[in-house]
Specification:
By secondary structure, the protein is of the alpha+beta class. The protein has 4 domains: about 70 residues, no CATH class; about 80 residues, conserved putative lor/sdh protein from methanococcus maripaludis s2 fold, CATH 2.40.420; about 150 residues, Elongation Factor Tu (Ef-tu), domain 3; about 60 residues, Helix Hairpins (Orthogonal Bundle), CATH 1.10.287. The protein is built from 7 helices and 22 strands. The strands form 4 sheets. Strands 1, 16, 17, 18, 21 and 22 form a 6-stranded mixed β-sheet that branches. Strand 11 and strand 12 form a beta hairpin. The longest helix is centred in the middle third of the chain and has 27 residues.
């Protein structure tokens, strides 16, 4: 068989196969149209000659209806921009101490003869809590009193003699009397120091000594805590060093007392930042009128600040490119690329530094086909009726023909 006959037969078979494929496979005609095949040829291949005209009208009607449904603009899902505040609260864990805590120690050495208080007693400033043996000091004080009386009598006698006694003798007697008085004061002070007194008021802690023990000036008899107020030391990051101030209100809760709500103020701030931890030591003061708090307790402290306000977007809205992160903002049904700087990322929202206002619509779905300045269709938003193209008469006739079939 000659070559031209083979080519002719192959062409006929190809045309018949295409006709069958176009006629019975849904969407085949559209694929040929996209490939550049004229619509007339596609209609001829799909239908008999008598139906070609109606097929052509149907294709045109479908094209016009497709244009009326959006004209190829991408469909997107948007969410309005919200706002949130960061750096408005500081939470820390601190340790509590009594506003005044004193370890009571003797001012002299000796044996304890008696302890006058018990653990847990409330005492006042100057109250005697224990005594040392004082027999020797008592005798010394009595001797000093006798020496003072003798010196005073000698001075008075010399004064009565008048000119019969030289001035030097009189002055010597007066000096002796002054020395005796000083010796008496020393003896009385030594005797007084045999009593161990409280330097401040408060609650007595556990007493670790017993009568008969030999104590020195370094022996702690008891610890007295004034718990009318509790001082809580905690540490804050250095970025808050310029925001926190003495007198600022704080709220706290004792870890040992769940649900407790305590209020206080900043009592003191350290004068330097720790270089190792980059934190600043801060001390808060909390009232304890019911005496429910104890020194050494741990506290959860919270301090509020004005904070910094930033826009927030859905995490799905954040996109990345070579220049950095950005979001798509929709304005007048046009997409705009807005660069952003992420401040804080949470599971449900992202705080950003960008030119965004609260209520702006940003795209969180359908970002693949967006371009800067391109038209978009927003899901759930109907277009105005006057903007929708009306179908042509030919498309209406095609629809009526389809209904008749």
């Amino acid at each position: 068989m000659r070559l031209w006959k083979q080519l002719l037969i192959s062409l006929v078979i190809l045309v018949v196969g295409l006709g069958i494929w176009v006629r019975f496979v849904p969407g085949a005609g559209a694929m040929l149209a996209k490939a550049g095949v004229p619509e007339q040829l596609v209609a001829l291949a799909a239908k008999p000659a008598g139906e070609a005209a109606s097929g052509q009208g149907q294709a045109q009607g479908q094209t016009q209806r497709g244009r009326g449904q959006g004209g190829g603009a991408p469909l997107v899902v948007t969410q309005p921009v919200d706002s949130a505040v960061v750096n408005d609260r500081l939470n820390a864990i601190g340790n509590g101490e009594a506003i005044l805590s004193v370890a009571v120690t003797p001012q002299a050495t000796g044996n304890l003869t008696e302890v006058l208080v018990h653990s847990g007693d409330r005492i006042t400033k100057g109250q005697v809590i224990a005594r040392l043996d004082n027999d020797e000091q008592t005798i010394a004080a009595a001797q000093a009193k006798v020496a003072v009386a003798s010196a005073l009598e000698k001075v008075e006698r010399n004064r009565k003699l008048g000119n019969a006694v030289s001035v030097a003798v009189l002055r010597e007697a007066e000096f002796a009397m002054q020395a005796a008085e000083l010796a008496l004061q020393t003896a009385e002070l030594d005797l007084k120091r045999r009593d161990i007194v409280a330097p401040s008021g408060g609650i007595v802690g556990i007493i670790t000594v017993n009568p008969g023990d030999y104590v020195t000036t370094t022996t702690s008899i008891a610890v007295v805590d004034d718990r009318s107020q509790i001082l809580v030391d905690f540490w804050v990051p250095e970025r808050f060093s310029t925001k926190i101030a003495v007198g600022q209100a704080v709220s706290a809760s004792a870890i040992a007392l769940p649900g407790s709500e305590l209020s206080g103020v900043i009592h003191a701030i350290d004068n330097r930042v720790d270089q190792a931890s980059r934190t600043l030591r801060v001390r808060a003061r909390i009232d304890n009128p019911d005496d429910t708090l104890r020194a050494g307790m741990s506290f959860a402290v919270s301090v509020r600040f004005p904070g910094d306000q930033y826009p927030t977007v859905n995490p799905l809205a954040v996109q990345w490119s070579a220049e950095g992160s950005y979001v798509w903002r929709i304005e007048a049904e046009k997409s705009q690329k807005v660069p952003i700087k992420i401040i804080q990322r949470n599971s449900d929202k992202v705080l950003v530094d960008a030119e965004l206002a609260k209520g702006d619509a940003v795209v969180m779905e359908g970002v693949q086909r967006l371009r800067d300045g391109g038209a978009v269709r927003i899901a759930g938003v109907e277009r105005p009726q006057e903007q929708r193209p009306q179908p042509s008469d030919q498309g209406q006739k095609v629809s009526e023909a389809e209904t008749a079939k």
